[in-house]
Amino acid sequence: MAKSKQYRDNSAKFDRNQLHSDADALSIIKSLGSKKFDESVDAVIRLSVDPRKADQMIRGTVALPSGTGKDVRVAVFAQGEAATAAREAGAEHVGGDELAAEVEGGMTDFDVAIATPDMMPTVGKLGRVLGPRGLMPNPKTGTVTTDVTKAIGEFKGGTVEYRTDRFANVHVPIGKISFSEEALLANLRALTAELQRAKPAAAKGKYVKKIVVSTTMGPGVRIDPALIGSEA
Known about the structure:
This protein is about 30% helix and about 20% strand. The chain has 8 helices and 9 strands. The protein is an alpha/beta fold and about 230 residues long. The protein is globular, with a radius of gyration of 19 Å.
């Protein structure tokens, strides 16, 4: 795919191969000319794990202290009192079999799907729709729960899911270009700390192999994993 002139111009403003501290990398990101819309800032972290092995597949959630800058749309599969609680907590879509039928028909107008445990037999049948989009509720990410009010509050408040892809990369949005450098830095450090906490015992060698941050339409800036948290 051909890169835009702005992308090429921004790429020429810094050494793409140089490793930076996390603070310096985000300073570079903020200094680059941006598109007219408020681009997301994304972090891609490559880990020395083998996602094909169950004991090295990393998946969970992390609360970003500065939030995501995004209005998170939530769908909750629940019935009875849990459904009422979900509506009161601000979920955009709430229901049981009728919501499952909508999703099976192609309705995926939400960013997070939460389900009460009793609904999982129904939700499990939606794997071909929810799975490829990374939306399948999972106990490991807190999206299968009896406390739907808490889960909705967390995800709308800045909690995001992370998981390794088949190349052992974790790709997480850490905010918007309009965020201050300090806010982006707090989110990035929360993410890297969580990945360190989730390090599987089977991981060998250097755990964090590569970190790159970029805006939605911009070039990537490399971070030295050894300098995460450094003020240098």
